[in-house]
Structures are given as structure tokens and as C-alpha cells.
Amino acid sequence: MAKFVLFVLVAFSVVSWAVIAERWRAFSRAARESETFLERFRKGGGLAAIQDATASLGASPLAHLFRAAFREISLNPPPPSGADPTTIEALDRVLRKSASVQITELERSLSFLATTAGATPFIGLFGTVWGIMNAFHGIGVTGTASLAAYAPGIAEALVATAAGLAAAIPALIGYNHFMRKLRLFEAGMDEFSADMVHRVLGRRS
To answer: Is 137 a member of any domain?
Structure first.
């Protein structure tokens, strides 16, 4: 049982480190490409030109929002008198839907980190209890409270406790870090959506 508990904890730890590494790369690329997109967007020019210039930025949430908005404007262009409330409402709906999709993509696998941070200490605690039970069993078998009787069980208990914490702590740190980054992305998308709507409001066909 002690070996099984350790195997489970090691599996959680390995997968959580893989998730941390993958999400780190994904978030870093998204931030880098979003910065590149904003630089181009703030230079101004036609929406079609921005679309062409940023078509390769596949990891940027802001670029995805822009492309969704551009498709909506292309399919339902504002009237010659300027964007009306119906156009703005449709554009805002498209932007919110696209932002939700991007947040879901960025959140991918983060729930596993939360599960690891919450579950592995209790799995380690189970291993600890099992090790202590073995220690008392050893004392009962030998009939004496010698070190040789209870040391193996206590060692199992301590190893399980340490393994549970070793799996939980990095997962918790990683989860909190990525959730903070995610909130920054959400704020950036809200700000960009407002800028995009404002730009369309002042746009004339």
C-alpha cells in the first residue's frame, strides 16, 4: 500500500510539472504575441491591413478577438451613417463570445493543478496513517516497542507525508501564478474589446 500511495503521488507530481511547463510556454507565447499585435493595432490603418499583418499570431487572445470582430464587421458592415446600436450590440456579443473561448483555452489543464494541490496532501496523509498502522502492527507482532519494530512504519509515514507536500506545493504555486496571469489576460481582453468597439463607432464605410 505504501508503494501504491507513492506511485500515485509521483504520477500526480510528474503530470503537474508537465502541465506547468506546457502552460508556461503557452502563456509566454500568448503574452509575447499579444504585445506584438497591440503594437500593430495602435499604429492605426485599415482593419483589413491589421488583419493581414497579424494573421500569423495564432497564440494571441487579442488577435483572435480582432479576427472575430473583423469577420462580424465584414459580414455585417456598419451603415454609411456610422455604426448603429444593433451593429455595436452584435459586435460586443461576438467579442464576449470570443473572449470566453480564449479564457477557456488558457484555463486548459489548470484544474488538474488545483486538484493536485488539494488532493495530494490527503493522499499523503492516508499514506502516513497507513505507515503508523504498520508501526503499531510491528510492535504488536514483536511484543516490544523497539526501534526495529516501529521504524519501518514510521519511515513509510514520513516519506508519504513528504511526497504529498512535494506534489502539492509546486502545483499550488503554479495554479496561483497562472490564475493571476489569466486575470491579466481577461483585463487586457476587456480593454481591447472596448477599444475595438470605440474604433468601429467612429468608423465610416
So the answer is: no
Confirm whether 139 is domain-assigned: no
Query: Does residue 84 fall inside a structural domain?
Result: yes
Report yes or no: 177 and 20 within 8 Å, Cβ to Cβ.
no
Q: Over the stretch 81-140, which tens digit does the pLDDT of each residue have?
A: 666 788 888 899 999 999 999 999 999 999 999 999 999 999 999 988 887 877 776 667
CA dihedral 32, 34, 40, 44 (to 10 degrees): -160
Residue 79, phi then psi, degrees to nearest 5: -65, 165
How many distinct structural domains can be found in the chain?
1
Q: Is residue 147 part of a domain?
A: no
